[in-house]
Amino acid sequence: MLKVYCGDDTFESYYASKSEAKNIADKKNLNVKIINCDELKNIDSFLSEVETIGMFSEESVIFAKRFLGNKKLSEYLETNIEKLSRYEIIIWHDKKPDGRLKIFKKLKQEKLLFEYKEAKEYDLKSWVITITNEQEIRLSDYQISYLIESLDLNKWLIKSELKKVEIFLENQGRNTLLDDELEKLLGFDIKGNIWKFLDYFGNRNRIKLIQEYIKLVSFERNTQMIIAMISREIDILLQLSYASENNINTKELGLHPFVVNKSKSKLRNFSKSDLAILNRKLFDLDFAVKTGKIDEEVGMSLYLVNV
């Protein structure tokens, strides 16, 4: 049996595929053999791993990571689904399936494709609550929202940070956390918080914006990353502005609903002209920094005072 797990929610697709591989292995008393397909140079490398099973090595469940990210493997699967289905193969693809490609159409038609879509904010909160209940710790609604927002709705990072919270509270002998303790555990009190920085940018709060920027660059030179994140923020606001002007449903923008709802309130602080000017100045700053015409921190500071 061959199954493919994929989707925007890479966390859920990964753990679902991993769990399925383990369940099959336990049921049939087999081992799980992990193959990192992005490291394979050709289809023969994969086939040699698969076709020797039961002949020269123990029969196993193949857990193939990023199989469909390898063009040669993907093309082979397209015409050899039945052949590979003779083996126990679980494929994890760390992206959303491209519905335009024949391989995904065929997998869907054969009911071999299991897609995990990006979680909505409410679902993500429920997911965090489930985890914290299992850890026997209690976070307030504000703390859960802060955690989700600060880590950009990334389940991988959230799960990792919740483990840190669990260890901290276990050492403290309690199950609740103060707000400032959460900020310290996430490292945002000293190193700065890029999401808080972008909130200040969107709300045009220059004083707090510059204070947060100072935190962000105090321990590492990351102005290029900050430029990229501001560019992303402006781009989102421009997309929402365009959608509003042309009566386009925001769902068509491909943005997460959480991001859309939050950005709509920021959009009220900018005219279309404001965004165009900020975008142009950011481009000029990026060019000046990369060509050595201005120090990156001086240049960014001058940019921020005009937000």
Structural write-up:
It is a single chain. With 307 residues, this protein is α/β, with parallel strands linked by helices. The protein has three domains: 2-115, P-loop containing nucleotide triphosphate hydrolases (Rossmann fold, 3-Layer(aba) Sandwich), CATH 3.40.50; 121-186; 194-304, Up-down Bundle (Zinc Finger, Delta Prime, domain 3), CATH 1.20.272. It is built from 16 helices and five strands. The chain has helices spanning 10-28, 43-51, 71-79, 81-84, 102-109, 121-135, 141-150, 155-172, 179-186, 188-191, 194-202, 206-218, 223-245, 257-267, 272-290, 296-304; strands at 2-6, 31-36, 60-65, 89-92, 113-115. β2, α2 (43-51) and β3 (60-65) form a beta-alpha-beta unit. α6 (121-135) packs parallel to α8 and α11 packs across α13. The model has no long low-confidence stretch (mean pLDDT 88).
